[in-house]
Amino acid sequence: MSSYLITGSSRGLGLQIVTELLKTPSSKVIATARNTKKSAGLQDLAAQYPTDRLVLVDLDVTSETSIAAAVEAVSKILPGGLDHLISNAGVNDLALIPFEEVDLTLFKEEIDFSLISTILLLRGFLPLVKKSSTKKIIQISSVLGSVELAGYMPGLTPTYSVGKAALNMLIRKWGASLKNEGVTTLLAHPGWVKATDIGGAIAEWMEKYAPETKSVTPEEAAAGVVKVLNEKTFEDSGSFFNYDGTKLPW
Ligand code: NDP
């Protein structure tokens, strides 16, 4: 059995990644969300799969207490360690608001979510990841965090882009140290996933200003992310991948 834990799997891309992972009979999936009981999608899956394939665990990535409780629960479920950590939870509440007008308190909350929550999540689960034989972490990021491509989409999601760029550096920098301990860290852009809450705001902008950009279904995005996670190797550690497996510029 190969184990996977995913954050933010109540809906959107996260829920679809859980569905995709469960297609492989040798996978054991820990699907986490702020409130797993309130997610109709997770409850549907839990009714279909036995607990040796799928376990639901409550996990709010902004709460140290919640992270600690989840780590404790998962340590009991996976005494041999966690093979794959998928850090997926995200927010994009400020969408298209320009820097001139953005509410700085909300911006601070968004940066906290992107950076501080991710640090807490990784600190919490790293011992379990290091204990496993696979030792893989994938951070779901966005091409909007690419510094090189920022000029191509000037008005799109200013604060979200800054948060994702900082997140990319956090994972690349930390990942460089973790590589010395045998841990593989990857970053992935899932594509423009139209049907999710975050993707909806972006897709609206894309249709107006960049109609040449192809969007993907949640199914295509999830299949791509899972393929990147499973097929990229330790040698690829520290790279930023598109959902189709090609490398993205920083
Ligand atoms: P959605 O808005 O559909 O889903 C966001 C998920 O994050 C929900 O499950 C939500 O849970 C969860 N979440 C929010 N806050 C917390 C929290 N404090 N603790 C735990 N979970 C939380 O977004 P997507 O599925 O589209 O996005 C998933 C990831 O993909 C994000 O990191 C996003 O930035 C990234 N991405 C998405 C793109 C797209 O086109 N959709 C493009 C590029 C990147 P809840 O139901 O409890 O609110």
UniProtKB/TrEMBL annotation:
Pfam families, A to Z: adh_short
Stored Gene3D superfamilies: NAD(P)-binding Rossmann-like Domain (3.40.50.720)
Keywords for this protein: NADP, Oxidoreductase
Keyword match NADP: yes
GO molecular function: oxidoreductase activity
Keyword NADP among UniProt keywords: yes
PROSITE patterns per the UniProt record, alphabetical: ADH_SHORT
GO CC annotations, alphabetized: cytoplasm
Protein family (similarity comment): Belongs to the short-chain dehydrogenases/reductases (SDR) family.
UniProt protein name: Short-chain dehydrogenases/ reductase
